[in-house]
């Protein structure tokens, strides 16, 4: 009674009520965060690691200057197998950097982790990369035929045509002694190639002046994705969407979606004219988009329009940005190691025997070049890290257990440079991939395409593209390092470099 009277005497007005509501909200949110933090700390309590700041986690120790992945490798020397990395007060990944730990996770079909992956959802949708459970299983089964070697075979010619356009453009660089930026050039080539191969779309992206709007959007989206992970208030959808960065994210998403929708629209229009799969097949090879449009499961159910858009978006991005990163770093590695480059060139010239193009049959005849590609993927994995959220407790090889709900990050970069697994891990040595050397290692010591049920569906496509482009580049040009311009590795969904990747080139001396 006395309390009610006291309340009445307070004469509360709207600002007071608003202030009280804000206070209640802050207390509620803080309690939720506190409980979440306690829960996350319990997930990783068996795994000591570098001390985090209670609010920012380890984010302040990441300088975004090309040293962050090496910081992770250094921490790994102190904390074997796995250690926690915090991205704010409640977001934490158990970072795995050893093959024996990675094997436990990769052999399972645990779903992709939320956080970093969920940030990608507005962009690439619930395609094969992000979907889970029954949906993923059904789509993976429907799409696997799209990577059968019968489908991949005719792609080799398309890849060679895309590579030739790029190499023709390089003639202007070969005339100067100036270094040029590779990543942008190679991205245009791999985009052109995926458009031709998977979507039978002859794009002019390599010959049009400037960078493609789609590639710029992908670059922006990858950067914003990283910014979001490192800025913990942005883990909240509402805060991010209302921020200027959220606005930029939506704008870039629209550019990416417009690009893919145009591809689907054109094909649907073409299909109206030739409305039968058999007749298309007779006219040209089935491409990935045909497979998407005509995929049917046992109940004759096809994919919805939304599913098709998500898959096209996923393959457009995964199919070009990853290979652009892998090829750019490969060219850089070959430029730094003329001794290996020379052996590759001799091998390629022998196989090509005067031809300008690689054929399907040639792909298996360049073992030394293939070892260099693998060694470059080891040192510079195009996908430097992947993540899972485990739904049941997992016990690792040394007996430690991560409980259900733990977010697990697999540092592909960390595994590939783990000194307990690789001798002289930072040295480029393709002979590590001689069959007799590879057979002595864990199959999970080298996982650029991941492993297990969620491995990369496009790995043969990617390897073929890298072989074709490398062989054709080595036939025409000598790749030369510019020691003043070294790449600084930057994880941005794919592996990029702070200021790009630079090399010099000169025409190969026909007698040399
Ligand atoms: C050098 C090039 C490539 C590398 C290093 C690479 C690497 C990877 C890795 C590590 C994963 C596992 C991701 C995860 O678990 O979150 C993955 C998945 C995937 N990749 Fe690739 N990739 C490459 C090229 C490609 C290409 C060319 C395509 C398509 C044409 C492609 C399509 C996919 C798809 C759709 C998935 C998801 C598969 C699933 O979950 O079932 N990738 N890739």
Automatic annotation (TrEMBL):
PROSITE patterns this protein is in?
CYTOCHROME_P450
- CDD domains attached here? CYP4B-like
Q: Is-annotated flag, keyword Oxidoreductase?
A: yes
Residues binding heme are 456
InterPro entries on file = Cyt_P450, Cyt_P450_CS, Cyt_P450_E_grp-I, Cyt_P450_sf, Cytochrome_P450_Monoox
Reaction(s) catalysed by this chain's protein: androst-4-ene-3,17-dione + 3 reduced [NADPH--hemoprotein reductase] + 3 O2 = estrone + formate + 3 oxidized [NADPH--hemoprotein reductase] + 4 H2O + 4 H(+); testosterone + 3 reduced [NADPH--hemoprotein reductase] + 3 O2 = 17beta-estradiol + formate + 3 oxidized [NADPH--hemoprotein reductase] + 4 H2O + 4 H(+)
A Pfam family of the record is: p450
Q: Could you give one GO CC term from the UniProt record?
A: endoplasmic reticulum membrane
Q: Which UniProt keywords apply?
A: Endoplasmic reticulum, Heme, Iron, Membrane, Metal-binding, Monooxygenase, Oxidoreductase, Transmembrane, Transmembrane helix
Q: What class of enzyme is it?
A: oxidoreductase
**Main localization of the protein?**
endoplasmic reticulum
Q: Which cofactor does it need?
A: heme
Residue ranges spanning the membrane: these are 16-35
Any one GO molecular function term = aromatase activity
**Any idea where this protein resides?**
Endoplasmic reticulum membrane
Q: What is its EC number?
A: 1.14.14.14
Q: Does the keyword Secreted apply?
A: no
Q: Which family does it belong to?
A: Belongs to the cytochrome P450 family.
This chain's function reads: Catalyzes the formation of aromatic C18 estrogens from C19 androgens.
Q: What is this protein called?
A: aromatase
């Amino acid at each position: 009674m006395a309390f009610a009277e006291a309340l009445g005497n307070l004469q509360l007005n709207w600002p007071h009520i608003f202030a009280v509501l804000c206070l209640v909200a802050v207390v509620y949110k803080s309690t939720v965060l506190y409980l979440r933090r306690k829960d996350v700390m319990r997930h990783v309590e068996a795994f000591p690691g570098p001390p985090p700041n209670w609010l920012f986690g380890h984010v302040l120790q990441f300088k975004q200057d090309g040293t962050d992945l090496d910081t992770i490798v250094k921490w790994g020397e102190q904390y074997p197998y796995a250690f926690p990395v915090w991205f704010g007060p409640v977001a934490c990944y158990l970072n795995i950097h050893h093959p024996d730990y990675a094997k436990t996770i990769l052999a399972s079909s645990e779903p992709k982790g939320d956080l970093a992956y969920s940030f990608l959802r507005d962009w690439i949708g619930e395609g094969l990369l992000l979907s889970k459970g029954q949906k993923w299983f059904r789509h993976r089964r429907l799409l696997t035929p799209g990577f059968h070697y019968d489908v991949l075979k005719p792609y080799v010619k398309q890849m060679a045509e895309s590579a030739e356009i790029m190499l023709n453009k390089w003639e202007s660089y070969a005339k100067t002694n100036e270094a040029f930026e590779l990543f942008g050039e190679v991205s245009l080539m791999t985009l052109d190639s995926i458009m031709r191969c998977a979507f039978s779309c002859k794009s002019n992206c390599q010959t049009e002046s400037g960078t493609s709007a789609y590639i710029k959007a992908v670059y922006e989206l990858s950067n914003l994705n990283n910014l979001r992970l490192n800025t913990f208030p942005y883990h909240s959808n509402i805060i991010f969407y209302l921020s200027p960065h959220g606005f930029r994210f939506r704008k870039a998403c629209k550019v990416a979606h417009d690009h893919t929708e145009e591809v689907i629209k054109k094909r649907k229009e073409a299909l109206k004219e030739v409305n039968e799969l058999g007749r298309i097949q007779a006219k040209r090879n089935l491409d990935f988009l045909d497979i998407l449009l005509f995929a049917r499961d046992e109940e004759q159910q096809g994919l919805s329009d939304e599913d098709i858009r998500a898959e096209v978006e996923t393959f457009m991005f995964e199919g070009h940005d990853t290979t652009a990163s892998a090829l750019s770093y490969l060219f850089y590695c070959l430029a730094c190691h003329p001794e290996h480059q020379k052996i590759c060139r001799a091998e390629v010239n022998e196989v090509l025997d005067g031809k300008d193009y690689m054929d399907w049959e040639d792909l298996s005849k360049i073992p030394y070049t293939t070892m260099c590609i693998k060694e470059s993927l080891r040192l510079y994995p195009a996908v430097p890290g992947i993540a899972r959220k485990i739904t049941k407790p997992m016990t690792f090889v040394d007996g430690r257990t991560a409980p259900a709900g733990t977010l697990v990050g697999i540092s592909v970069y960390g595994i590939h440079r783990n000194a307990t697994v690789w001798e002289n891990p930072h040295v480029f040595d393709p002979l590590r991939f001689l069959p007799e050397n590879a057979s002595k290692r864990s199959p999970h010591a080298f996982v650029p395409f991941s492993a297990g049920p969620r491995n990369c569906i496009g790995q043969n496509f990617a390897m073929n593209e890298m072989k074709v482009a490398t062989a054709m580049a080595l036939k025409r040009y000598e790749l030369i390092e510019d020691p003043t311009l070294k790449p600084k590795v930057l994880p941005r969904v794919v592996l990029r470099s702070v200021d790009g990747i630079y090399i010099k080139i000169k025409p190969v001396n026909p007698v040399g």
